[in-house]
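Q: What does the assembled structure look like for these inputs?
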Amino acid sequence: MATINFGYSINRPRLIDIDRNNLRKSDEILLEMPELQTCIGCGTCTASCTAGNLTDFNFRKVHTLVRRGEYAGAYEEMNKCMLCGKCRLLCPRGINTRGVVMLIKRKLGDF
Amino acid sequence: MKRANWTEYQKAIADDKYYYARSCIRQNFYPGSEKAFLEILHKDLGRDIFDDPLHTSCTGIGYHSDIVPLETIMTVVARQFSLMNDAGYENFVTSCITSFGIYTEILSTWEEFPETEEKTRENLFKATGREFVKPKNLAHTSDVMFHFRNEIAGRMKRPLINARTGEPLRVVEHIGCHYAKIFPSKGIGGSEFPYVLAGMIESWGGNVVDYPERRHCCGFGFRNYLVQANRGYSIANSHKKLESMAPYKPDFIVCNCPGCTMFLDRWQYTIAEMDGTTYGDDGHGIPVLTYEEMAGLVLGYDPWELGMQMHQVDVEPLLDKMGIDYDPSAKYLGRNGKYIGKPEPAAVNCSSQNNTIYDIKM
Amino acid sequence: MKKRVAIIGGGVAGMQTALRLKRTGGIEPVIIEREEELGGKVRNWHVLFPTFTPAGEVLGALRSEVAAAGIEVLTGEEAEEFTDRSVKLRSERTIECDAVALCSGFTLFDATLKEEYGYGIYDNVYTSADLERMFSEGRVAMADGSAPRRIAFLHCVGSRDEKVCQRHCSKVCCITGVKQAIEMKRLFPTADVFNFYMDIRMFGPGYEELYREAQQRYNIHFVRGRISEASPMMDGRVQIKSEDTLTGRPLRMSVDMLVLLIGMRANDENGRFADKAGLTLAQSGFMQSRDLFLGNTESPRPGIFYAGAVTAPKSIGETLNEGFTAADRIAEYLGVK
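A:
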């Protein structure tokens, strides 16, 4: 059918819909690195991040989104990491943050 | 559904002698509804309700769009109350949900801040020379209809039952945000489980559909709709609701807010024309009714007398379900049989629009 | 002649206070308990955080000690009002005494007040207390009897919430949520469990460790965000909405069971007690201690003492300790060494 142009379109919801997201990759990531689940969102990683101080890269936010099944753009985001390892030195939960970067890149190269 | 807690939110609703304040936009969108309300109260229920030509808009749309300042709207509202007093009434009923929200909010503000009330009293006197009075009782017209739901049920000609299957109709009720989200205790049933429309539906034989996005706003939002660039956001809210209710296959939607009725109805057309999605039976839309129209149908009023030809989504499938006799050829004949024009065929509508007597006339 | 102390409330605080008083040899405690048996709220709990100790073990030990010590217990009796020298019961009976220990604990928050969660309206919305009952009965299931595949816990229901006049933190719900999430995961290993929280407050020994275990070992998801509403779905499940505040985006999901971690609120009768005995209430409605540091178990009135959650939400361990402290203060006050 011919569609009418009304000068606007239906905004797409920006919510995280856990029912629609496929959590398989997220589960795989957490199975390989269960410690990632212990993140308490303190933000020390992002505060100390070499890349995050110069770009909008936010390691904490990206891996949290990945855990919720929001994979789009995660690989590209993780490419911004310089792998300097400062965050790993500081993480109070002892998460191997550099390992998380590599793991997400390995698992989500296709997204 | 177990709605035990609605009984905790009751309010006093006057039983007779109402001063009626109309809505600005309903008279254009659903012109038969306010007339039907007055008729039902006068003729069916024998109540005294005064439709005063002197009253004005409450200026709510201007207020919510940041055009009318608070002091101004308070003075306008004080004038309406003063007119009510002149006419010899004490019970104010308003046809619009946003007006109801505004009247409620202003009365509470005056209660809470006597100095603001004093200022309004002064402003009213300066502007109009009128005497400041407050109503004894304030209600929305849907509250009044709710109040008489059992009396109406006693005179019911067409219950909300599918005449073909004998099953209760599945009805989605949608309450305007300004009805109870501002002051939950001023709405029947509160804000989470409003009962004002549900009570009518249940009393008249229908079943209320409780779907996940029931409490979500229709998306009108005044300035969010008034600016064309923002309409994508407005329509997305109705879209979200329609997506959520569609699996329950509702027979119709009933609203108590002018904006919601309009948007849930008109946006169905827009969505269908934008991406081809429809939500009702046979690839058409879900009819959207005002509560006056619902009451009118239940009491045996003629659907065209109720102004139901003005809906975007055709109501004929619902009329057929309820077993209502109507004259398809009279749909677009207004007062005195004058042809009022008809809309172009649209995806949300049924075939009743194709080639009727009007086309021959023209 | 022995001194007599009336203990209002026969939960863990009352029993512990009575036991310590009795052991002084110079004091005869009498426990006034509203229910038909001793034990208070702990009777309805299955296992206790953070060790998963059966609640019955703790209660059993206290009850048998109370019985062995020959402490006088009045069950089915409710205190109407009291002073430091007498307790008037609802049954019109009056207990004369030399001091009073108020150990009447708390009231569980009524989850129906948070209407947006539909407790009592939607079938698969439960409270933490309901869940404990199900654990005790040995049958945890959705309303239709099937096993849940996705469970959400909501922290802070009736706590830190001005809308229901409960501004205080109930303190123990965080760890209860962690404990119950683990129990659910043990019962339903393939289920996904989500905890929605505003803050996680792990104040006690072993709590943080248990929280970490819940995350790492049990793969329980913690989402920082408060659920804004729950709605019914066609199949009887529940749709919930919150913000995932750590990503700054709204989040929506359906769950098979929604468990509301209900808070501890002050007893309604606290106000009446305070009026009659000349005591004061804290802002939260709990009884106000004479001093939060040096007089925690004392009221501002000589001869009236407090133990346990009557002054604020407390864990069972803290409550038991307060029983000892209160008893020691009472003995001191009565000149019994």
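Chain C touches chain B at residues 112, 115-116, 118, 120-121, 229, 231-234, 239 (CB under 8 Å).
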